[in-house]
Amino acid sequence: MADPYSNLAAEDKAMQTAIADAMDARCKEPAQMAIRKEYLSDLDLPEGAFAVEFGSGTGHVTHDLITLAGADRALGIEPSPVMVQRAETHFASEPGLSFEIGDAKRTSLEDGSVDLVLMHTLLCHVPGPEDVIAEAHRVLKPGGILAVCDGDYDTATAQIADFDPLDQVVRFMIDQNVTNLWVMRRVAGMLAASGFDLGKRRAHSYVAEGEATYYLTVINRGAERMAETGVLFPETAEALKDEARRRVEESTFFGFMSYVSQIACKPG
Ligand SMILES: C[S@@+](CC[C@H](N)C(=O)[O-])C[C@H]1O[C@@H](n2cnc3c(N)ncnc32)[C@H](O)[C@@H]1O
């Protein structure tokens, strides 16, 4: 199966809605908010800065461009109409914040018009990530900042013992939903090749807490996909979903992934 995030607008509405629900759950988790705060709150933007998020999903991270990064105005660009509508509903009353349908490889932004471009968990899903990086370089002002953050997906795990079957569900989910598995280990090279000066690179650990709301969406969607593709009988998939829920109830669930952020600057 092709990564559904790589052409979300072409997926049926039920799939787009399920992904929007998962994105909302992830964005609202305190541990995820902490990651965004770690790399967005010390960017040095000029007065009145205009920031753009490429691949803005349900809009929470675009909102962070104003509240954490200190931009005056922020625009989210996103191909899925379901996502854009959800973002507009969430943030209708926020001054300076807007969303539009578009493709990060070909935006309608003018050359040299943007102070900050953000790609938060976008590049792992895009075939040809170099084209998105080139578009960011085109639209940024000289001295403008590019911030990239994504999962280091090979570190994702729910394993709590040898041969733990839940971990296979996580691995299957990554296999089915990530186009560029190694993107954060290669992005510095891509940015340098596109003419960016490299800034700070940081690792951010994510461990599911409390109700593990987002990680359960990963297990549930992974188990359902295993049933759809014939890896498991539907009853087995349901049993694995129950196993994860039960672990959360019994405080034995463990879900982890490392994220990496990379800051870069357009020279000038
Ligand atoms: C994992 S979601 C992340 C959404 C948001 N950045 C967040 O962290 O909540 C990835 C998003 O990138 C979008 N996307 C995929 N390809 C894109 C492209 N070529 N241009 C713009 N957005 C794209 C998807 O539709 C999806 O909403």
TrEMBL record:
GO molecular function: methyltransferase activity
Gene Ontology biological process terms, A to Z: methylation
Domain Methyltransferase type: from-to ranges: 53-147
Keyword Metal-binding belongs to the record: no
A Pfam family: Methyltransf_11
Protein name, as recorded: Methyltransferase domain-containing protein
The keyword Transferase appears for this protein: yes
Keyword annotations: Methyltransferase, Transferase
Organism the protein comes from: Ruegeria sediminis
